Q: What sequence folds into this?
């Protein structure tokens, strides 16, 4: 996690009234090559207790505004499938599906497909 934070262009954190982290959103490099300098991979995590409260939308909206202000153009998001909630929020915010890598992600002892979505901030 520390490495992700160091590499991020922007990292936003939401806390509850007790100071406990209930969500975060960040954007960082998509690829190392110069051709992708204006493309940002975004991700968010919302604690289960904060699901369906609008927190994810608020974090992402603030993140996207800040990235756009810095001149970034294209946002991409990889989503381990199936994940209706994540697909739902990304599509509600204007992301479009662009493809699926089959059996590319290995976690919890299983291989998973990862779908990719993108949003053009100036499009």
A:
């Amino acid at each position: 996690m520390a490495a992700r934070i160091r590499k991020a262009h922007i990292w936003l954190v939401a806390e509850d009234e007790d100071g406990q982290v209930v969500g975060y959103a960040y954007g960082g490099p998509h690829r190392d090559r110069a051709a992708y300098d204006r493309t940002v991979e975004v991700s968010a995590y919302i604690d289960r207790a904060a699901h369906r409260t609008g927190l994810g939308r608020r974090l992402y909206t603030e993140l996207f505004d800040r990235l756009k202000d810095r001149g970034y153009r294209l946002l991409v998001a990889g989503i381990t499938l199936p994940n209706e909630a994540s697909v739902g929020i990304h599509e509600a915010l204007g992301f479009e599906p662009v493809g699926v890598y089959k059996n590319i992600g290995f976690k919890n002892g299983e291989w998973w497909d990862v779908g990719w979505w993108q949003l053009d901030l100036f499009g």
